[in-house]
Amino acid sequence: MADVPVGLVGRAAETAAIERLVREVTTGVGRALLIEGEPGIGKSALLSHAEAQAHRFGLRVFSGAADEIDQRLPFAAISTCLGARATANDTRDAGVDALIRGEGWTSTPLGVEAADAAFTESFLAQVDQLCATGPLALLLDDLQWADGASLRVLAELSRSLSQLPVLLVGACRTAPPGGQDLNRLRRTLRAHGATALTLEPLDEGTVRELVTRMLGARPKEDLLQLMKDAGGNPLYVTQLVETFTASGAIRVTDGTVEASVPTTTPSLRAAVLQRLNFLSPEALSVLRVASVLGAGITVEDLAVVAARPVHDVLAVLMDARDAGVLDEKAGRFSFRRTVVRQALYDDLPAPLRAAFHLEAGLALAETSAQPELIAEHLTLGTPSGSPRVIDWLAENGEQLMASVPRMAVELLRPALDSADATEPRRGRLHILLAVALLRSGRAAEAEDQARRALAQHHDPASEGAIWWILARAPYVSGEPELAWAEIEHARNSVSLSEVETVRLQAFGSVVLLALGELNRAEKLARGAEGDALGLGDLNALSDAYQTLALLDLLRGETRGALDRVDRALRLARDENAPEDRQIPLHLIRGYCLLALARSREADEAMGFSQQAAKQLWDHMPLCDLSRAQVMFADGRWDDALVEIQAGLEPSNESLPKALHSLAAVIAVHRNDFVTAKAHLAAVDSATDTAPQKNFFDHLSIWAACQLEEAEGYPGRALDRCLALVGEGFVSVMGSVLAFFAPRVVSLALSAGNTEFARELTVAVESRAAAGPPDGISAFAAHCRGLLDNDPDELLGASQFYDQFPWVLFRALYYEDVAAALAEARRLPDARGALNRAMDIYAGLDATWDATRAASRLRALGVRRGHRGLRGRPTSGWDSLTDTEVAVASLVAQGLSNPDVGARLRISRRTVQTHVSNILSKLSLSSRVELATEVTSHHLQSQP
């Protein structure tokens, strides 16, 4: 026991648990540990032990601690582990002036969650890359003070521990109760198998041992009796012993403890402060200022805030370092013990602390300090509308909106409330506040603030910016109809510049498209296209091209749409347009390529959008859904399900209805009605908020009708379909979604509704007669062949269907052909068509379709012969999809998830999901085991 450090006395079980976890991580299995307890109970000592053990076993170690002062600063806590203060400037767009002027619009998400997600993805990718070279440890103390963004990063990391050799250790206080993000982290860690250590107070025997160890002699009972006031808290016991020893109340002579201790014990804060009485009043004053500055103190910053010469401050810091009060690392100082900094900080009266923070912020504003750090102090400071604060906000407000919009809101509101009514910059501050609210995901408040700016500060030069916010706020909230009302009012009633006018016009075309107003959207976009070309405005031109390309695609003019979107992309690249502007263009390009049966290129286009969105916002459900649709069309349903799962990540569920609907469709075709019903229940309770939500309404209709039909109720399926879509159903089936028309005709015939089947067939035939695209003619022939039960009419569409990229619909077509041929008693041809359909169903694992087709044709006298339906196994190597085999092979080569994703053009999240599925199917527990298994499997496969 003599070798046990004082801080670990009585913690043998806990240290053993830590050593076990470290050893397990060295085998390639990630582990998490959460240490909880009251202040001073020994959490930091165990963290230090974990760090020492990690070093001992060769883990690469990253450690840090959250700071109470930094709670408002995103990623401040996690950045202490990386050795840098968090500002997130490297991952966030600082061009907010451009945003205000309308230059930053895209159809993609806007808000602090998106920007935070980009940093999260960057951090997780960095961890993933580090793990490729060996196991690592990530240790973070004082989680109760961690900012929400850092806690969300840790929660996300904990979900990856099943496949990353990471030791994740966090420590936090048990009281007061944590906030929502900390409690969510606790739940996530426990759900993923983390070890939880709740430290209890030391018992009397252990306290006796601790005091004996400290004094080098056995204490008398009167001293131990006084130690009971410490409640078994080792830090308090230690502080009391050190305080009494320093004051001479305890003396050790010849191995005997002589004590003349008081009858009552001081508070912990008083004991800590008393331990610092060796410092001069001047030094204590400087350290109190240092406690206000928080972690990572520099000599220069402290000298400015303390209004003292640098050499005087440096002398104090060096003395405090030598005395063990401070630590120094890379020119920055921090308090060695949080309890010391907290005691000095709490010793300042609250009003004085607030005043100190205000002065600290203003003093740092005169230096090259980061705006986020200055804002941090101003936020904690006394609310002020002083000219100095207004000056700073006016100059730095744009950067704050880009990097820390929530903090910008906290600063701008009180500054506006307390600023003089005649302050000339109030209007600009109102606009800054509105944009900060918008970026914080508070669109309704942003709109309210913009209206206040419009009513209180009439400035023609800023009206365009205000109306831009008024239009944008409802659009990003999923209310394009309100966005259009604001755009229309601005265009008709507001004095706008030429550039502002054309930008609102182009944006209006996008909004109208989201509303389904195709003709009006086209008219507005064409006008904006001409004006934007004349003005040379890329932003308006990009929006106009986006609208026109999507309109061409919806009308079946696919080659024209592809040409237009390629022109827009060339223009964006030539002008070095931000990637976020290119994302929707690549999505449209992907859909164009899919319609042209260029599935591989379509997948690459969707993959480009997905990768760009990952870099900017971690992920974007629209990209995940779009790629899933391409994979579904191409018959890669397992890969599609992985993309759906990524799109349903809780950090950004903007299209849950659409994603669950597509998953339900797959489940029905695979005869898994329980899963299908679970997804449809989620559809009923979810709300899509993405502006593009209306483009995917057909997915929920498709899924619900599919389930009704599969359960043997074609009439109910048709009724549900008609009730949901109403009068517009026939026109939609006859144009945008014409490839669904044959399935609906088949459903109507099964339900005995020949009249509707004929009505829909005529509508599709009329659309085909109007001209391109060629596919409409094939769909019309398919519908007519079903209606008239004419196999030759059906066979007229075979050349088109053989090239049709949606393989499920190709199989359904050949099933219909087989049935018509069988009824015409052309049995050999019917068997050939059935075989083609069944081969596709087998590849899709579409057991419901295969069973239905076999039963349908058996009743008509056609059997498939010796070829039976074979489903993919659920475990073992044969259960892996082609993508999973490729992922497993690359993982075995030592590639990290980001590297695998780059090779396969899929996101890190998608790779992570694939690896989890592979480990589950192969009953493995780590990537190390997977690498061994891949090598063994390949060796066994050699002839």
Residues in β-strands, percent: under 5%
Helix content: 55-70%
- Helix/sheet category: mainly alpha
Q: How large is the count of helical segments?
A: 48
Query: Could you give the count of β-strands?
Result: 9
Principal-axes geometry comes out as globular
Spatial strand order of the main sheet: 2-3-4-1-5
Compute the separation of the termini in Å.
60 Å
State the major sheet: 5 strands, parallel
The CATH architecture of the domain at 621-858 would be Alpha Horseshoe
In short:
The chain is mainly alpha-helical and 943 residues long. 66% of the residues lie in helices and 5% in strands. Among the domains are: 6-198, 3-Layer(aba) Sandwich (Rossmann fold), CATH 3.40.50; 204-271; 276-348, Orthogonal Bundle (Arc Repressor Mutant, subunit A); 621-858, Serine Threonine Protein Phosphatase 5, Tetratricopeptide repeat; 877-941, Orthogonal Bundle (Arc Repressor Mutant, subunit A), CATH 1.10.10.
